[in-house]
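Example record

One chain of 278 residues, shown exactly as stored in the release files.
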Amino acid sequence: MNADELLERYAANEREFLDLDLHGISLIGVNLSEINLRGSDLSEANLTGASLVGANLREANLKGAILRANLCEANLIGANVAGADLSAANLTGASLRTAQLEDSKLMGANLSEANLSEANLRRANLSGAKLIDAPMSRANLINAVLSGAILEGANLTNAILSGANLEKAKLVQAILNGAVLERVNLSGADLSRAKMIGCNLAGADLSNTNMRSVSVSWSTLRGVNLQGANLYRAKLTWSNMTGAILRGAIMIDANINRANLKNAELDGAIMPDGRTYE
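Predicted structure tokens for this chain:
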């Protein structure tokens, strides 16, 4: 089916277009709101500026497509969006659960309240993206770029973020319980009031982060860089901080009961009782 036939049938109030071969189709700036393209092949398609509000793209093939479009509340469950360009796209309230998004471009996209649970975002570029209150449990974000992203209230329970770049990201009140954050770059990020119980942060860079009132109990922080971090009233009970770098960190009123600080570097750190470590 070509673009003219699709648009003609859509204009005649037809909405069901299941399992079609639309590879490479150009639908720039068109309105296809509420269309049902479930299982269709839209790989390499160009949908720049299109309106796909409420569209059903479940299990569709969108590999390599240009999707800089309005996909608000769209159904992309199980879709293949690998390598697609969704930069600055509107995906608020969309469902991308179990979707394949590896190597995709989502720079500046709005994914607030979008469901990314169990999605594969390996090596995806989400720099500057909005992911406010987004469910992202068990998502694969290995080596993803999330620098400057807004993840306030996002749920990343048991997500895998090894090697990801979250420099200067905003994770206020985010939930990262059980997340794997080995070697992640969180320098300058805002993790205030975040829940990070049972995390693996081994070798992570948390220098100059705001971790005010964060909960990081029962977590692995071996060799983590917390130089200059704000840990005011943080909960670090039972965490393994062997070899952690805490030079100049602020730990006033932090709970470090039963935390393992063996070989930790504490020069210039302000301890829970207000004393400066010398």
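Notes: The radius of gyration is 22 Å.
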